[in-house]
Amino acid sequence: MERPTPLSGFPEWLPQQRIVEQQVIAKLQRTFELHGFASVQTRAVEPMAHLLAKGETSKEVYVLRRLQAEEGDNTDSGLGLHFDLTVPFARYVLENSGKLQFPFRRYQIQPCWRGERPQEGRYREFWQADIDIIDKDTLPGHYEVELPLVIADALRGLPIPAIRMHVNNRKVSQGFFRGLGIADPMEAIRIVDKIDKIGPAGVGKLLAEQLDATDAQVKACLSMAEISSPDESFVDAVRALGVTDELLDEGLAELAAVVSTAAAEAPGLVTADLRIARGLDYYTGTVYETTLDGFERLGSVCSGGRYDTLASDGKNTFPGVGLSIGVSRILGALFGNGLVSATRETPTAVLVALPEEERRRDCDRLARVLRTRDIATEVAPAAQKYGKQIRFAQRRGIPYVLFPEGESGGPEIRDIRSGEQTPVDMDSWTPPVADLRPEIRAGE
Amino acid sequence: MERPTPLSGFPEWLPQQRIVEQQVIAKLQRTFELHGFASVQTRAVEPMAHLLAKGETSKEVYVLRRLQAEEGDNTDSGLGLHFDLTVPFARYVLENSGKLQFPFRRYQIQPCWRGERPQEGRYREFWQADIDIIDKDTLPGHYEVELPLVIADALRGLPIPAIRMHVNNRKVSQGFFRGLGIADPMEAIRIVDKIDKIGPAGVGKLLAEQLDATDAQVKACLSMAEISSPDESFVDAVRALGVTDELLDEGLAELAAVVSTAAAEAPGLVTADLRIARGLDYYTGTVYETTLDGFERLGSVCSGGRYDTLASDGKNTFPGVGLSIGVSRILGALFGNGLVSATRETPTAVLVALPEEERRRDCDRLARVLRTRDIATEVAPAAQKYGKQIRFAQRRGIPYVLFPEGESGGPEIRDIRSGEQTPVDMDSWTPPVADLRPEIRAGE
After folding, report:
1. Chain B interface mutation, best of A3, A372, A379, highest count of B Cβ atoms under 10 Å
2. Best to test chain B binding among A48, A66, A87, A372 (most B CBs inside 10 Å)
3. Which residues form the Aminoacyl-transfer RNA synthetases class-II family profile domain (chains A, B) (predicted)?
4. Mean pLDDT estimate for chain B
5. Which of A245, A314, A335, B1 fits as disulfide partner to A175, beta carbons 3.0 to 4.6 Å?
6. Which of these three, A341, A375, A401, is where a domain ends?
């Protein structure tokens, strides 16, 4: 075949970048588990009917077809790749509800696919790391406060810029528009959601054209969308606009609880931002978006919200709340700007040098001894001159070369950075912790 | 939506089974890294032209189409889901050859998709765990010996039945058929590969019908296919059939090296089995298949081989050798037969009991203290009676409940298995290692 070229929108990482990704994912995983979330993985495909019922991304779905499917064979017709992890998880909960304990805390780290036009931060295949809590019949509001704190905990300590979470509540927007007398509050939410793209004037025009909003109504909607505060003061700002509605009251109380708890437990993390809407139709309460300091242009790197009716089979309803970290979006930006890398491109800590090909089995045994002490070790590919074997280690950042027989007659270990070579006790030697595994660090 | 039902061929695990899968994959990963393999992940899709060039599974490929692709928009036409991890990896190596160090040792654990008829051990979506070593221009034969030993190391200690690896070499089959005067040796390999399905008589019939093989040739082919030995004695058995061919000699020497080294380093692991062929066209040297004791009916649970020309762009060639563990096939069989499970269905080791909803923030802080010592902790969902909170922990197998204020006035910890409850020092208490995380065990 010809030398292949990358596919736009389907990023792949080099081994050193993959080590960063692995360690980031391991940190997320470990934190989620420390908070009691169990891992779930769902199949990559869902029935199209299920995918198409769930909001605006449905138009970007990839549909599957078996290459050799015979005429009339519909076994796999109507399957598409999932575009997020929330819709499959809601289906998994419904399907297995008799075998799960509720409230059910799960995390899920998998790729998703959307046939969108690729651009910075937007891929056609991308990894998401989701946490959700789903309960039966009712879901206590305290989970809407808990999830942002878990996310902050998960990202803490990673070489990633600070995050800011922008939070709103669908009930606030919907109640406000309803109290204001707007004909179609859900459509108003979708229009206001475009404010970052088309600006306040554009939003005002759409509200007037599509929903017959009066000048006063447009003005109130735009004032509401401008409200933002890191504390509960947004409540007074909304009240000052003079709209009253029961759902609005409910939403304001819920949003105030999220913002005030977050302000106490993780100062600077959460801002009430009444312009936030989220495109997906299934949200019914708190909605979250997250920006990465210095990378606001990427859009949200961690989004989600509360969904009360997504997982329902008519008889039973499982309301949930979830947040989803855009792993590929974050890593793509960090790699693209040279902001994070790994100390080497291989797990190998020690290369066993090979004096001659006939000694390979002996060298394998030395390697095995080190592996029993959790030291990643490989034997040199060929019995080249030692200088060449040392350069092979250097090129890949392997910190140590073990010589089976040094000048001392026994095995010697060489630190390839200092060039220092010393006799080594095979039954006790171990490298410093910082050399044991590749580590991730800021910068290139 | 209606209550959903499982999709045949797309297995999903319950949380407790997923914990088993996670720990099995973690063991594979850790072992591969100890042997110096770096992780790579490739996108799920490949150009169809690339997938279709690579042998018999191509007919089972899933093709993608964007739901809303407009007439004449061919951006994603011609993409299909990969059916294995070898073909994508060969493409990755060609694409990135200037940025990789050779020989390149990589592992890759991802799902693959094939539109096959689902049956026991055969899924339409399944996880594979692959190791490969790819070099530039030439690849030393010692890697064909090394890989089976790495696999044995990776599966050791897991609650999985013993494996037996059946090894052959394409050069042996091809050289033997050629030396015998068979017109199309590659076609003869494909026919003999069917011996398990259609029996020796069926194979003989096909050889005669399709390749005009004489009775003597058929007899020699079937005698060759019956040869099997755990040591080098297979060489004499082949010689006794009286066929001479240069390629056959080369293959016998290579296969003898694999079998004799494995016999010395891992007795019982490898058998030379001259009936093994592998369906895929890209193998050129050693080929491997692996059976699981007691589950021979599943077919191979770890297959692979040497491929000399798969990764080639005309100018440069990157020969490789690889082995692929069928993770879903093995786990599906173990789960289906109740042979392995986890000690609980959640990572949570401690549930903090909640005396009243107003105390939630205090309880969160207690949980945080435990998490700093790596103890997975969650706070009770609601301030129910303590009996109910204890039962909530019991149902999910959480071993400990922490009460913020016991009779002693301070926090107390209760082991829910013994019912014993004792005052606890929040700054030092930690559960026994066996309770810290769910563990996997044989049986249900």
Report:
1. A3
2. A66
3. 103-355
4. 93
5. A245
6. A341
Residue A349 identity: A
CA distance B126 to chain A (A): 9
Closest-CA distance, A195 to chain B, in angstroms, reads 25
CATH code of the domain covering residue B418: 3.40.50.800
Give bridge partners of residue B414 from the DSSP assignment: B401, B421
Give the type of residue at A382: A
Q: What is the DSSP string of A371-429?
A: HHTT--EEE-SS---HHHHHHHHHHHT--EEEESS-TTSS-EEEETTT--EEE--TTT-
Would you say residue B150 has pLDDT above 70? yes
Residue A205 within a domain = yes
Q: What are A331-373's pLDDT values in tens digits?
A: 999 999 999 999 999 999 999 999 999 999 999 999 999 999 9
Domain count, chain B: 2
Do B161 and B192 share a structural domain?
yes
Q: Do B36 and A378 touch (CB under 8 A)?
A: yes
Q: What is the average pLDDT across B377-383? A: 98
Strand partners, A287: A168, A305
Is residue A36 domain-shared with residue A167, that is, in the same domain?
yes
pLDDT of residue B314: 84
Q: CA B97, CA B103: separation in Å to the nearest integer?
A: 11
Q: Are residues B281 and B359 in the same domain?
A: no
User: A43 vs B106: CB contact, 8 Å cut-off?
Assistant: no
B366 inside domain:
yes
Amino acid A91: pLDDT = 95
Query: In terms of domains, do B310 and B162 share one?
Result: yes
Residues of B in contact with A357 (CB under 8 A): 142
CATH number at residue B296: 3.30.930.10
Burial class (CB in 10 A: 0-12, 13-18, 19+), B130: buried
Contact list in B for residue A372 (CB cut-off 8 A) is none
Find, in chain B, the residue whose alpha carbon is nearest to that of A265. B361
Question: Chain A residues with CB inside 8 Å of B348's CB?
Answer: 36
Q: Quickly state the pLDDT bin for A71 (edges 50, 70, 90).
A: low
Domain ends where: B341, B360, B377? B341
State whether A245 and A357 are in the same domain. Answer: no
Model ipTM?
A: 0.95
On whether residue B6 sits in a domain, the answer given is no
Query: Is A5 a domain residue?
Result: no
Using CB atoms, pick whichever of B95, B347, B361 lies closest to residue A36.
B347
How far apart CA A64 and CA A46 sit, in angstroms, is: 10
Dist. CA B286–CA B261, nearest whole Å:
14
Containing domain of residue A424, as a range? 350-442
